[in-house]
Specification:
The chain is mainly α. It has one domain. α1 packs antiparallel against α2 and α2 runs antiparallel to α3. Helix content is 91%, strand content 0%.
Length: 111
């Protein structure tokens, strides 16, 4: 029984971390989009990275909203389901950010 009680704060803690980090990552994506637009304007070259970053920002926003929903949900079963979805979306957004960083690095190496 004590094992179940010790898992609950950890799960809520993970949900809080997903909420705060995904909200911060939306800001990071928007900042990098702005920097890329400045670089694109000065070099007169276009890249798909800023479009992909905008989609990534939407994924991080979805993760943020889902984790907030999981924090506000009263039912334990629903909270776990929403938390799993938020976790999956967050990890997908992180993976896509790594791929986007590869695109940016490749675009810089070619230039």
């Amino acid at each position: 029984m004590s094992e179940q009680n010790s898992k609950l704060p950890l799960e809520e803690d993970i949900c809080v971390h997903i909420f705060t980090v995904s909200a911060a990552m939306v800001g990071v994506c928007l900042t990098v989009i702005g920097i890329l637009r400045v670089v694109i304007a000065t070099q007169r070259r276009d890249t798909i990275a800023d479009d992909l970053l905008s989609l990534d920002a939407v994924l991080f926003l979805a993760s943020c909203v889902l984790s907030y929903w999981a924090l506000r949900t009263r039912g334990r079963r629903r909270m776990h389901r929403v938390e799993r979805v938020a976790d999956f979306v967050f990890l997908a957004a992180l993976l896509s950010m790594v791929v986007i960083c590869g695109f940016i690095t490749y675009a810089i190496a070619i230039a």
